[in-house]
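Lecture 7 notes: from sequence to structure.
We start with the chain below.
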Amino acid sequence: MAINPNQKFVRIKDIKEAQKAQDAKKAAWEATDRAAEARRTALTVQRMDMSQFLHEFHAVDLEEVRQST
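Predicted structure tokens for the same chain:
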């Protein structure tokens, strides 16, 4: 059942609470050190075995597949 957005915030109090929650999320985002997080992520990826990022492709001879079926 879909929520009707016109009925979700029928009271000013609900709107103010939603705005406060959004402001708190925004403040938490702005307080994070995204450069440090990027460095940690880069180091994690560098420490990973490169084989995790590789995929081996195989060529298939379609005529051979057709003959075997």
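Points to note: The radius of gyration is 26 Å. The mean pLDDT is 83.
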